Amino acid sequence: MDIFGIPIQAFLGQLLLGLVNGSFYAMLSLGLAVIFGLLGIVNFAHGALYMMGAYVAFVALDSFGINYWAVLLIAPLVVGAVGVVIERTLLKHLYKIDPIYGLLLTFGLALIAEGVLREQFGVSGQSYPVPEMLQGATNLGFMILPNYRAWVVVFSLTVCLGTWYLIERTRLGAYLRAGTENPALVQAFGINVPLMVMLTYGAGCGLAALAGVLAAPVIQITPLMGSNLIIVVFAVVVIGGMGSILGSILTGVALGLVEGLTKVFYPEASSIVVFVIMAIMLMIRPAGLFGRES
User: Fold this and answer.
1) Are 46 and 237 in contact (CB under 8 A)?
2) What stretches of 171-226 show up as alpha helix (H) in DSSP?
3) Distance CA 177, CA 48 (A)
4) What is the mean pLDDT of residues 183-192?
5) Where are the domains of the chain?
6) Distance CA 68, CA 71 (A)
7) Pairwise CA distance, residues 100 & 97, whole Å
8) Of the candidates 80, 105, 76, 125, the residue with the CA atom closest to the CA atom of residue 223
């Protein structure tokens, strides 16, 4: 059976690949949206934090024998702790000035992280095995579905929707939003706003690291893996709306699917289709699909 002259297996395979990429886009853009929406920081170090999460997984297995399931918890905690140190020592001085300073600082931090890991591990890349429980594939009749890729999609979307629910539908999320809009008033009610801001940045960094762990068995782990992805993720955030958490999730998944389908019908445009959509969106609705007009 063919779809527009393309074998259905090839069509669905690219659709699955697009869904997997979309899951990574969604999780990374979610972390960016959380940090920008609640703290107003354009976190250009997000790609480096994603890369660090993958390297934590690699080092944990290679040097300490810590398996994939444990590192799903360990890597976000380690990289989140690095984020807390960055926020307390550097970013806290930039909240009340132009966001461009935060972007330049985090861009510099990303270059430092890439340089350090390139010196330590080289640029050839390391491989990370698929966990034994998720090896193999399931025959759905119309296509073969790799078990690990199915896990990535389900787990990523669960984390993304859980984070959205926490921020938009719980009392803790209400405190977070209120603390960024009127910190003096929230602090008057006895809530430690600086601690809340610090943990929010750490949580956003942890989400990037979690995406890195999920990506480790799928791609080669290299110091440049984050910089290769972060520009696309920023485009996703712009299209969805800067600071819109739900917009980042939905747009990330949708653009991953669009990118996958473009590889089927017009492969030459697959690397630029996201940026073409971003350019059109900026002309039609600069605030993004789910952003609020200023």
Assistant:
1) no
2) 171-181, 183-188, 193-215
3) 26
4) 82
5) 6-284
6) 5
7) 8
8) 125
| Residue in the block written with tokens 């979690």 | 210
**Which string of DSSP letters, residue by residue, matches 233-270?**
HHHHHHHH-TT-HHHHHHHHHHHHHHHHHHHHH-GGGT
Is pLDDT larger for residue 265 or for residue 67? 67
**Which uninterrupted H or E stretch holds 137?**
strand 137-139
Predicted local confidence at residue 3, as pLDDT: 62
- The pTM score is 0.93
Angle at 63 between CA 59 and CA 69, to 5 degrees: 60
pLDDT in the model for residue 2: 61
For residue 139, give the 3-state DSSP assignment: strand
Q: Does domain 6-284 have CATH number 1.10.3470?
A: yes
Tens-digit pLDDT profile for residues 216-273: 999 999 999 998 789 999 999 999 988 788 999 999 999 999 998 898 888 899 889 9
Residue appearing with tokens 């300073």: 101
